[in-house]
Write a structure and sequence with these properties.
single chain; ten-stranded mixed sheet
């Protein structure tokens, strides 16, 4: 029987393209720098492009069965040219009042279980300020949001890997498929192409010493001691819903922009462009 922390189980029934700039509403954690000043660091949900092969991911949670994972109800939406905006639904906190975001989007939130990960893929971009130089990013903190549909399969992956902790994966995402519609046309289906990838191959198992050694540089860049950087995300803090007044303000913001009411990964969209400019791709990192 599921024993989820957070939103609990079972997941709610679900109701019936933005730009490439930083999301206006996102998850974040506070990191105190060497100068003693706190900084909010964005924590992005893992999202692979359809067709990506062997994307390197290191998972950090010390459980195996996703029935033991933290669960969450969230809303994802576009807003004023930004995409993948995330707002935690207060239903996670069992708030008895109606959720303003549910009302303005006219749909229930999406339910996920969470896994903490380090994105070990190396991203390289041309440095616009220094000709011939490159910016390199690696070891980005991520939350892997797994749907109820994929929960059992992902648990099997973790069982084969002997747990999520220290598992170094090569992750691939299939291209979406075309499905017939009732009017004789076709629609793009992402049913077998989840954002987090549909093929997880465990390449190596890191012990605690190797986890710290591998992540030492990334931890220093991020601004955390490696001992903390190598731990799972603090879900209770990261996924704490905003208060009701804040949610009302966000709902009003959404209501003012029609693009927010569109699915962030629309069923009718064509396959993503193969070539993306360095500038746009770098913006998607939101490092």
């Amino acid at each position: 029987m599921a024993n989820h922390r957070g939103a609990g189980a079972p997941p709610p029934k679900r109701g019936g393209g933005g730009g490439n700039t930083k999301a206006l509403y996102h998850l974040g954690e506070t990191v105190t720098g060497s100068d003693g000043k706190p900084t909010i660091k964005m924590i992005k949900a893992l999202k692979l492009r359809p067709g990506v092969k062997n994307h390197e991911i290191l998972t950090l949670d010390d459980f195996t069965d996703l029935d033991d994972a933290y669960s969450i109800n969230i809303h994802m939406f576009n807003l004023r040219g930004t995409k993948d905006n995330i707002v935690v639904c207060p239903k996670t906190a069992m708030d008895p009042r109606p959720c303003p975001i549910c009302e303005v989007l006219n749909k229930e939130p999406s339910w996920y279980v969470c896994v903490s990960a380090i994105d070990r893929h190396v991203y390289e971009f041309a440095d616009k300020k220094s000709a011939g130089q490159k910016k390199v990013y690696q070891d980005l903190r991520r939350v892997v949001l797994i749907t109820n549909t994929w929960k059992q399969r992902m648990t099997i992956n973790a069982e084969h890997a002997k747990g999520w902790r220290g598992s170094y994966w090569h992750v691939s995402r299939s291209e979406p498929t075309q499905e017939p519609t009732q009017n004789g046309g076709t629609r793009t289906s992402y049913k077998d192409s989840p954002r987090v990838g549909d093929v997880w191959f465990m390449e190596e198992k890191y012990d605690e010493e190797k986890i710290k050694n591998e992540l030492e540089k990334g931890a220093a860049t991020y601004g955390l001691p490696v001992e903390k950087f190598a731990q799972p995300l603090n879900y209770e803090v990261l996924l704490k819903p905003k208060d009701h007044a804040q949610l009302v303000a966000i709902a009003n913001d959404i209501r003012s922009d029609e693009s927010a009411l569109k699915d962030p990964e629309p069923a009718a969209a064509a396959a993503p462009a193969a070539a993306v400019s360095d500038k746009l791709a770098e913006a998607e990192l939101n490092y």
